[in-house]
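Project standup — Tuesday

K.O.: blocked on the structure for the chain from last sprint. Re-posting the sequence here as requested.
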Amino acid sequence: MRLPARLLPATALTAASVLLTGCFTGTEQATDASGTGGKRIRVAMLQPPRSGLSPLSDDAFKLSRWSTAETLVRLDAEGDAQPALATEWTRSGKSWTFTLRDGVTFHDGTKLTAEAVANSLTRAATASPKPRILDGVDLTAKADGDRVTVTTRVEDPLVPQRLSSPQLSILAAKAYRGKTVNPVGAGTGPFELTKVDGTSSAALDRYDGYWGKPAKAPGIDVKYVPDGTARAAALRSGEADIVEAIPVSQAAVLDQDLVTEVPMPRTNTLYLNTEKGAFRNPALRAAAREAVDAGSIVKGVYEGRADVAEGLLGPALPWAAGLRTPVKRAKAGEPAGETVTIGTYTDRSEMPEVAAALQQQLQKAGFKVKLDVREYANIESDALAGRFDAFVLSRATVLDSGDPAAYLFSDFASDGTFNLSHLSDPEVDKALEKAADTPVGDARRKAVVEAEAAVLARDAAIPMLHERVIQGDAAGVVNAAHDPRERELVTADTYVK
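H.V.: unblocked you, prediction finished:
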């Protein structure tokens, strides 16, 4: 059982403070060395880089959150594509042509050209493994004057949204040497990445040649603090200005004026194995659905800092709720002592507690329940192989394109690459394919919600709750981004008083 932070022994809080000792040594509210004034922004982040800050990996989201690497396209709040390094684009069948913004330079002083853009996109498209956003997508990029033409093997209405992914950031030619990609001094954003200290820290300085509004802060100093208690302590002690991913257990004991919660496109879901075992029976899947009390999990495990799920898509996609219609589901059967095994992982601190709560709820309904809890790296292959009757997962629902159709297809199509439910249903496949093929806009959103309904009608997955980003901003921080997609954190408008 987790103890609230206010009940933790003093030694635990002291240990957190020790973890932070020297975290920002030499940068405490440091002013700009150039003499232009302002304070550097000290950021405590959850995870250290896993791939040397390569934009072709999940590390790309760090580069995006620091406003150092940029993409051709950005997404607005609705997930629609908007200009960034590209000012406009047109489509012709399988090809999309993007016109580049004038006056953009990389941090090494070289100009943004169509050749540089094509080079970045080609390196991403030919990487092994490919960036996740290009999984299953064959893409080529060709320079043509001040424009770049991107062509896919089959018609793809999501190309602009795909190009908004931080994993397709555009970097200077110098970043691509050998097999690695080094983003230091190679971006186009308002901050230049100047120093990387492995998995310990990073530093960025304002880039005065930025094509847009100049950054208000002189720079950013980043420390990686994996321990949640230590990150919260950094905010409490004043050692950090912005702290990402504050654990639920710590949020309650911080000054609430310093904590911001933002609904994020991430759903905590119970996936049921429809291929074998007890949950091959639709009536037993329905029994499990009726047994799950998501409200008590939100209250008990998340201390009210989450939203009870109405569907797979949550409040971070506000259009989904208005398009839903009632879903006709199977009638619940009698578990009669059926034994099921639920798997989950320890990497997110709430997951084991959620699984334990589900165990109690399902046992109360008549199931016999075993738990298998491991680190994610040690359990994912078993989950994908269908070795569990059910699996609890915190799942991003818009992945990298800002569009939920890709997530739904990946998780619930017969040939989906992340089909934990092992669902194979022709009607579901038909609905998923329609959603994937419909042009971007209201018609696509309607098709997405219809595909969601098809999945829910089979009880292949039981959405329980939608998580929130819990971010800490010190009292002097102005205009820190609170982004549900976790693509932005420090922007050109962010500064410390």
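K.O.: great, moving the ticket to review. The mean pLDDT is 91. The CA atoms of residues 310 and 463 lie 7 Å apart.
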